[in-house]
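Suppose a colleague, Dr. K., hands you the sequence of a protein chain of 169 amino acids and asks what its three-dimensional shape might be. Before reaching for any lab equipment, you can write down a predicted structure in token form. Begin with the sequence itself:
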Amino acid sequence: MRGSGLSRRRRRPEQASSVLLWVAAVIGLLNAAPNVYWAFGGDFLLETVGMWLVDLRGDSPTLTGLALVLISAVKIAVSVLPLVLPGSFRYGRLVWSTAVAGSAGLLVYGASGALVNTALLLFTTVEDPTARMGQALIWYPMLLIWGLVLACGLSQVRQTASRGSLAGD
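The predicted structure, expressed as tokens, is then:
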């Protein structure tokens, strides 16, 4: 039946996973945007990555710009890839495995980077405090949050798919 409570209950987890995957995609795209901006000559927040990047871009702007565009492309792909998951697994295990690996990588990289940079700020004298603060307060936490939201969305997709297969869908 179209209006049955069962069909409404099935849609709620799908909607939740879809919302979480969209939120994760937005966070990932927001993380990629500065790389594109910096690739084309922007300076805002560049020092929060490190003076090494400012110096490198000054010494080799074309090569640095290309590297930043490549990094952006990877971040954009990781952001958008999971959006093909809800609704069906027609894309197969490769897409699913890639999304799960991306989520795990973001979680580990974001958490470890945030912890290391915070520890460096708190317990040592750092050479580039602006970069350490940017890493500890902006970039690594953003990766961690992106990974957490993506992991929750993927978990919802998996639960919804399991319920559907158990119900004979």
